[in-house]
Amino acid sequence: MGTALSVPAQTQSARVRAQGSGHTIQTAITIISIVLVGIALIPALVQMFLDKPLYYPDARFTIQNIVALVSDREVTATFGATFLFCSIVVLVSMALGTSSAILIGRTDLPGRSAFLAILLWPLFLSPQVIGFGAILAYGPAGLLTIWFSDATGLTEPWNLYSVPGMAVVAGIAATPVTTLYCLTAAIQQDPNQEAAARIAGAGSLRILFRIILPIMRPALIFAFIMNIVNALETLAIPLIIGGPVGIKLLTTLIYDKSFESAGLPQYGLVSALAFALMAIVGVLFFLQRLALRQSHRFVSVGAKSIQPKMLALGSWKWPAFLLMAVYVVFGVVVLVGAVFARSLTFILSPDVSFFDAVTLQHYSDVLSVEVYRRSILNTLLLAVVGGALGTAFVAAVAMVAQRSNYRYRRVLDAVAQLPRVLPGLVVGLGVFYASMFVPGIDLLRNTIWLVLIAYLIRFLSSGYGIVSPALLQITGDFDRAAKSVGAGWTTTMTRIVLPLSKQALLSCFVLLMILIIKEYSSAVFLMAPGSEVIGSTMLSLWTQGLAGPVAALAVMQIVLTSILTSIVTRILGVKLHG
Question: Is the keyword Coiled coil in the record (predicted)?
Answer without folding.
Answer: no
